[in-house]
Every structure is written in structure tokens, then in C-alpha cells.
Amino acid sequence: MTTLNSYLMVANDLGRWRAVAAKAPDVAGETKYFEANIGKATSIDALLKDRRLFSYAMKAFGLGDKTFALGLMRKALEQGAVDPKALANTLRDPNILAFVKAFDFAGKGAAVPSAALTADVKARYVEQAMQSQQGKQNRAVELALYFREKAPKLTTIYGVLADKKLLEVVQTGLDISPRTSAQPVDTQARLLKAKLDIKDFADPRKLDAFIARFAAMYDLKNAGAIETGASNANAILYGASLEASGGMGVDFGLILRIQNARRA
Fold this sequence. Notes:
mainly alpha; AGR_C_984p-like; 2 domains; globular
């Protein structure tokens, strides 16, 4: 099954897949602990001290790889998100900014987390768990689902550069070498700005088209098990679609036909 077909199977029935993820023993166990202990997180110290609770919250916001960055997160939480010069804003990482806004200790001080916050964090955690489960079958599906969730909320190209998963999707979809990540951030930003407008991701049709483009390119770059003839035909058709679309916007129907060509 192609990446696009696998992605669509999940994306078209997200409720069911989220329910499956929520019932997994490890997810259910961590959620139960979170529900029982989030009420104790009335300060920055209390949240950071309970490493299991903190880890749950971080993973919920797509920050699982920064769970051990206690100093960074403490500073971000202490400064809040109101001041443009606050760390959460200058880091340009939308996930950190969302985390700081959710746990607004700087703005509200010590306070018992609300029921709304608890429900939001739980929903985010299940979403991340569902994506991770899909990634065990096909990493590209996890990336596509993550991109579907996060990309529409981007406000600056630097948000892509600050998020490894978003950047991988964009680099793959645009056929940009990962080696460009070694370049200065502003140089990378100029390169991406010349190739896409992140405002397009707020348009569901354009978002779908880019995800389809990513899926096709991912399969082309990881075509070890695909017959050479089919892969070449796919590449030719895909190249034609890019030329016809003028770069970023790809006709969704054409992408589906490209994927079908692989199975022909």
C-alpha cells in the first residue's frame, strides 16, 4: 500500500483511530496518571518536579524530544508569551509557544489547572500517540498526520525550521536536500519562502495537495521495494504534475493517478 493510501485510510476515519490509540494500555495508563495528578500542578516547580506528569504534557504538545530540557522550559514558562522578546516567542517553535500559553503560570500565577486545559492536553496526547502508532507501520504516515495537524496553524516560515517533523515533510515534498539544514537559519528561510507560502496550508485543498505531494516524493525516495519501471513511470508523471502546477500546488486527482501508476 502506498503512503498516500495508508494516510487516507487513517485521515478519513480519525475518530476510530484515535479511539484505538486511547485504549492502548500504555496510553490509557499514562492518561490515568495525568488525570489523577494534573490538579497538583499549581506552579512551574510543581509541574517540572513531577517528571511523569511533565513528560505527558510535553509529549501532548509534540515536544517529546525536549522532555529533558528542563532549564529551557522553566525559563520559557517563567517569561510567559505576552512579551515579544520572551523566550517562547523568540524560539519560533510553535509547539513551545502553545505549551507556554496553555500552562500560563506567568499570566495567571499559581492556579489549579482547569477542566478545559486537562481535556485539551489529553486530546493532544492521544493525537500524538495515534500518530506514533501509525509511524510504526509507515513513518511517512506519521509525518503526514502531524503535518495535517500542525501546518494550518503556522504563521511564519521559521515555525517550519523549528520543528524537525514539519521540516522533513517540507524538504521531502519540495525535494530539498536535508543537508541544507546545516546552513544559517535565515538562509534556509529564504530558500523555503522562495518555494512556498505557508498561508496556503490554511487552505484544506492546498494542504491536501501538499501532503499528497510529500507522500509521492517520500515513496520515490524510499523505493527500494518498488520495481524500477514503475518507479521511473511514477517519477515522469510526478515531474509533469509539478511543471503543470507551477511548483507547490498539485492536483489531488493527478496525485492519486500517480500512486495508481505505481501499482500498475
